[in-house]
Amino acid sequence: MATGTEHAILFFSGLLLLAIVIQPLARKARIPFTATLVVAGYISSELLVRAGVDTGIRAENFHDLIFFVFLPVLVFESAYNINASLLWKSLLPILFLAIPLMLLSTVITATLVYFGIGHPAGFPWIAALLTGALLSATDPVAVVALLRQMGVSERLAMLMEGESLFNDATAIVVFSVFLTIATGSDGPMSLADASRHFLRVFFGGILVGAGTGLIFAVLVKLTGETVIKALATVISAYLAYLVAESVLHVSGVMAVLITGLIMGYRSQHAAPGTDTGFEQKLWEFNAYVANVLVFLLMGVTITLGMFEERWLAMLIGIVGVLLARTLGILSGVPLLNSLTPIEPISRPFQLVMLWGGLRGAVTLALALSLPTTLDYWWTIQSIAFGVVLFTLFIQATTIAPLLRHYGLNRH
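^ thats the sequence. predicted structure below, dont judge the formating
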């Protein structure tokens, strides 16, 4: 008789095998790979349930899996492989998009969802704020890949990629603060308490990441072994996260982000002749596995009841996200253009950034991590799934015509 652990291993192995099978099919059919993962996850789950197979996977087990396994990988890989030189050139607009506009997006989305659902007892303000935070995390990986494939301006690709990197980290920190309030793990919090808590965990995580990154950057120089260097990057990511979260109680995600930037900068500016290709491929592999599993888990956890009972909440979430993104980009970016000496971000760029701000792995990961003890967890998860499905099947599939309409593929 197989144990729960054996069931889980078989289940995740089966999910990865499924991804291997469907990726070439998705490419031939020109369907977004992540969208096919969701569909495949749902179908496989339904077949297993009808066959009476218990996978051993429970929603209440997702929190630690997401926060301690998947998120460090997703954040570190994005930071490690981003072009540090291009990031620095566009850092001001990226930080503006990723922090003030992300916070604005959270508030706008939360407000629309709260009043749209209109059920303060069953869906209070804290539920709306959790929803706004997780829906503010952008994931334009597919769009950025398309931009580069079509030869679009590297600056536009960097603006979107850089925004996503810092935006995701900020969204996770904000979500964690709201989750602490929702679960009451730190006792009652006033607005001032929550603000102080946010600043402490945010900047505390940055300091932990800076220290970890610098220490490991020095350690890596002491060895010439390619495999050891790659192993050091993995250790640095998880050590930064665990020290920040479990020891110092600050943001593990911010710690991983800064560690990844430092380790990535070291890799990109290594001495001539230094082989860093293995490290980069290792992290591409790690992120691939994490992304695949997150989208497949979305498919596995989707139920028809979500669409039957929560369709209106999903629709409100979609409208809220689009409106928040529209207000943020079309009002915030012109303000940035007028107040700073940087090269202005053109209106076509703004529209691509608006429509290309997809929601993906981080939004899903946060939704899957919600404790099932919260009365409204299923509603939030349903909204998140609805928004992600909309971005996968509508926004992701229509971004190429938008680029061609503005002639951006000729830059």
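The chain has one domain: 57-410.
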